[in-house]
Amino acid sequence: MKQLLILTLLSFVTITSAQEKTTLTLKDAIKYALDNKADAKKAQLKVENSEYQIQEVRSRALPQITANGSLNYNPILQTTVIDGSAFGAPGTTIQAAFGQKWNSTAGVTLTQNLFDQSVFTGLKAARTTREFYQINNQLTEEEVIERVANNYYQVYVLRQKLALAETNLKTTTKVRDIVKGQYDNGLAKKIDLDRMTVNLSNINTQKQQIINAVQLQENALKFYMGMPMNSQIDIPQTEFEVTPTSISETPNTANRSEYLLLKKQEELLVLQKKATLAAYYPTLSLSASYNYIGQGPQMPWFAKPTDGVYWSDFSAIGLNLRVPIFAGFGTRAKVRQADVQLKTVQEDIKDTQLALDLDYKNAKTQIENSIITLQNQKENMRLADEILKNINNNYLQGLASLTDLLDAENASTEAQNNYTAAVLDYKLAEIKLIKSKGELKTLINK
């Protein structure tokens, strides 16, 4: 019995912990997403990987040292035909075999690039690549912020609609109970009671649909945050106080991440063209090697001269010059391809600049219209609520019909839903305006 009680308590604690809700402000949601969402993590990994790319290119400018070794057995030695006069037998030909059945070599080789234009260009390109991925990381973070903020506000709207449906359900239930009481006392018609019952059933259905929509939207928000689906979240009401956003002059598109990314891509293509042109330049390198060789009739390892095996060393130091003369016009074709790619990205830059200007103009217009709509819907909601209160009092006093009451309830519900939708439109327009100004990261500081 005692063990059963303990298990029951543990189960209760587990269930209670699982149902605990995390209060989630927009700032918290964005920070969580930047720390946990796969897109943000992958962008950060690309920045980290760019450091290794720089190290890889830098290695080409550093000395390259290799060790080598070999062991060879020659079952049949190659013979060479030589003139016998060199050995005091003019007019004869001697066929002699050179070499030993066994030979083994071990050595170290060093190579150092002294001049290679492609290496120097590659280093610049690698550093520019790092800057490219840093900007890409910034752009990815902005995209994550935008998605999280949009879904965050959409969850709010649905929760507001759910709260409204619950309030309407309570109000309609009270009115239905009043009509039922009147019907039981012979003061109301059955059709009036039936209409209230149908209306109550419709509100229940709408509430269930909204509950389902809230769950789906919350799941979407958790996905864009990288949050486990079984987490329970709570969004505070203060997050949705509407304060008109300041609309400044047209922002400088040169500060937008999308524009900066394309400019950095243009810089990379310029360096790519230079790297291709480097194929026309000569290259100069220094090489040095030191080797040790052992030869004899048996395997040289661990053998001595008494065994017929002799070891000796040799080394070489040299300069290697390579001068390209003709490559079948292949380099020229590559340079022209690089030119085309460069011109293409330059056109993308012009088009993106126009698109960013368009985004700001549209966002500015949208938020101005949203503010007007929001003010109108707020006034409509106040009037509809006032009308509903008056008609409800008149109905209770027998001065208004049930149809008037139902129409007033529907009008009030519609006005409140319209106001909630207007708040969402304003918030989404606000995010677009902030994005068009390149200030999405300011949402983290709110």
UniProtKB/TrEMBL annotation:
<keyword id="KW-0175">Coiled coil</keyword>
<keyword id="KW-0472">Membrane</keyword>
<dbReference type="GO" id="GO:0015288">
    <property type="term" value="F:porin activity"/>
</dbReference>
<feature type="signal peptide">
    <location>
        <begin position="1"/>
        <end position="18"/>
    </location>
</feature>
<keyword id="KW-0813">Transport</keyword>
<dbReference type="InterPro" id="IPR003423">
    <property type="entry name" value="OMP_efflux"/>
</dbReference>
<feature type="coiled-coil region">
    <location>
        <begin position="360"/>
        <end position="394"/>
    </location>
</feature>
<dbReference type="GO" id="GO:0015562">
    <property type="term" value="F:efflux transmembrane transporter activity"/>
</dbReference>
<dbReference type="Pfam" id="PF02321">
    <property type="entry name" value="OEP"/>
</dbReference>
<dbReference type="GO" id="GO:1990281">
    <property type="term" value="C:efflux pump complex"/>
</dbReference>
<keyword id="KW-0732">Signal</keyword>
<dbReference type="InterPro" id="IPR051906">
    <property type="entry name" value="TolC-like"/>
</dbReference>
<dbReference type="GO" id="GO:0009279">
    <property type="term" value="C:cell outer membrane"/>
</dbReference>
<keyword id="KW-1134">Transmembrane beta strand</keyword>
<comment type="similarity">
    <text>Belongs to the outer membrane factor (OMF) (TC 1.B.17) family.</text>
</comment>
<keyword id="KW-0998">Cell outer membrane</keyword>
<protein>
    <submittedName>
        <fullName>Outer membrane protein TolC</fullName>
    </submittedName>
</protein>
<keyword id="KW-0812">Transmembrane</keyword>
